[in-house]
Specification:
The structure is a single chain. With 213 residues, the chain is an alpha/beta fold. It has one domain (16-210): P-loop containing nucleotide triphosphate hydrolases (Rossmann fold, 3-Layer(aba) Sandwich). The protein contains seven helices and nine strands. It has helices at 27-34, 57-67, 83-93, 98-111, 127-139, 157-174, 185-188; strands at residues 16-20, 46-47, 50-51, 68-72, 145-149, 177-181, 193-198, 201-202, 209-210. The protein is globular and about 50 Å long. The chain starts with 15 loop residues before the first strand and ends with a strand.
Amino acid sequence: MHALRGIDIAIDQGEFVAMMGPSGSGKSTCMNILGCLDTPSAGRYLFEGVEVSRLSRDQRALLRRNYIGFVFQGFNLLARTSALENVELPLIYRGVAAAERHRRARHVLDEVGLAGWEDHSPAELSGGQQQRVAIARALVTEPMVLLADEPTGNLDTARSLEIMELLTRFNHDLGISIIMVTHEAEMAAYAHRKVHFLDGLIVPGEDHERIDD
């Protein structure tokens, strides 16, 4: 049983792609491969011309750290740390000095509309605010690619639309490529292109389904 079966997909820099399909269709496996969290058992995956399957585990970790940001349905914030400290975490891994970490984290929290909330813990924030912190954490390293796995799955409609407007702005203004897994057609409508998965395959004729501006 293969999670993916001979798919062929190319994503350009600056694209916003929505991956859709029922549970078990392969979309999350595809995202994990694109995010260098998994490696394919066959085939090739090129990131900026580099064949990822030939990289060592440490090299893949460096690629993730330097080029890719992640946003998850469950936020994945550290419960006992402030919003500012959560956002600074990727910069600690990079060895960025404390003053620069503080500056960059405060700037990106301001960008996601959370100026003044820096010292609040996740328990003191709403679900939408927690997801904004998660987005800020993903963006603080200035990634080329943002991978978002059901980023609105735990939010109500109003908060979901706010998060989608935020992702759209960063895609448009900063040129960050966004690859988003979603079950929700209303959220997928924000993307430039929808890719539909079924039984480990991309549904013929529905890849490159571009959405009119």
